[in-house]
Amino acid sequence: MALGAGAAGAQEGKETEPELSLEQLVELNAADLFGGKLTLERGRFKLELPGDGSFARGFDTGGAAGGGRSGFASDQRQIKDETARKALLEGAAGAFSVAGLGGGSAVSVFELEGDWKVAFKLRMTGLQAGSRFTLRFNLDPKGKEYIQSSFFQDLQLKGKGKTKSASSQDPRFGRRPDQWFDQRSVGVPVEIRFTDGTLSIRVGVRERDGPGEKGRGRGPRGGKKKARDRERHQLVEAVKLEGIEAPAGGRLAIAFEKCSFLMSDLRIEGKLPRKWLAAEVDRLRRAGKLATGSSGEAAGAKGKDKVAARPRATGKDGSDISKPDPEADDDL
User: Fold this and answer.
1) Separation CA 121–CA 276 (nearest Å)
2) CA 294, CA 20: separation in Å to the nearest integer?
3) Rounded CA gap, 277 and 288, in Å?
4) Of the residues 74, 90, 174, 212, which has the fewest C-beta atoms closer than 10 A?
């Protein structure tokens, strides 16, 4: 059948339309892939999670809309208790990213690869002898390989080969967290880096004193606004673990209990995880939900088709791999 001039032109235009690169597809589908505000530059990404539910999109919290039973509030409007709102939000430093209330666990829906950095400000309340705040890095899909830290005081590598660990050599971080962490601070800066096989954690210490000095667990006296105005921190190395060959990438997990916290100005940046992204783009494409144009139109979308479910962060036995490893804590 002969095509008319208009149809032929349309057909030619369709055939010559350039295929989008992985980076372009990632930018168009950033909300589905990372959950927050994404910036790409020269093979690297920067992710910001500025509240308004973005944490619940970027992390699997196990609860509807990032609230409820999950223990996480990804929007400050989800914090209903007035005492908690006042303790966490009043005079807080930085922009709200997520709050943790009482206890819960979450694992990122995205993966990190190669070198990366995670930075945030942390405000904590209700710390006690049994409180836990655990982070896992480079967590593999089966939950067997990871690097774990408890309250920034230690690091333990669990994976193939010999288990490695390190504890803080700074006496200021040697006591129980409820004794050294400044619970009156409006936001203690934390920076975590993984580069060239070394994972290091730096924590902010006020320039005029340190967390190991008398009275630091309680912090300075005075109004919260005044405390925020005069707080000036210097990042110091709390702990470092070197010689990490594997895992070289994976998810980020957070678990806590018997405390509450506010995490603000949460930013994650690193090398673009191309292998993981290629698999996720394929998942969206097969489901007909991959956005391929400026209009956000999904290629091959079919009416009521749903996005293919992303695999949940569970171990082989179905356990929650975001939760801290009791054996790891005991070893340290």
Assistant:
1) 28
2) 12
3) 16
4) 90
Give the residue carrying structure tokens 């070198």: 115
Quick: pLDDT tens for 184-231. Answer: 899 999 999 999 999 999 999 987 644 444 444 444 344 444 445 557
What is residue 214's three-state secondary structure? coil
User: pLDDT digits over 160-178, tens only?
Assistant: 777 899 999 999 999 999 9
Smallest CA-to-CA distance from 87 within 265, 291, 314, 259 is with 259
What are the residue boundaries of the structural domains of the chain, listed by start?
A: 21-331
CA dihedral 162, 167, 169, 171 (to 10 degrees): -160
CA distance 135 to 119: 13
Which CB contacts under 8 angstroms, 24+ apart, belong to 210-216? Answer: 210/172, 211/172, 211/173, 211/180, 211/181, 211/182, 212/171, 212/172, 212/173, 212/174, 212/175, 212/180, 213/172, 216/180, 216/182
Q: Tokens standing for 307?
A: 């996005």
Please tell me the distance from the alpha carbon of residue 269 to that of residue 153, in angstroms, as a whole number. 23
Q: Which fold has domain 21-331?
A: Jelly Rolls (2.60.120)
What amino acid is encoded at 289 in this protein? K
Express each pLDDT in 294-303 by its tens digit.
Answer: 555 554 444 3
Determine the Cα–Cα distance for residues 157 and 162; give it in Å rounded to an integer. 9
Which single residue is written with the structure tokens 């921190």? Answer: 233
11 has a pLDDT exceeding 50: no
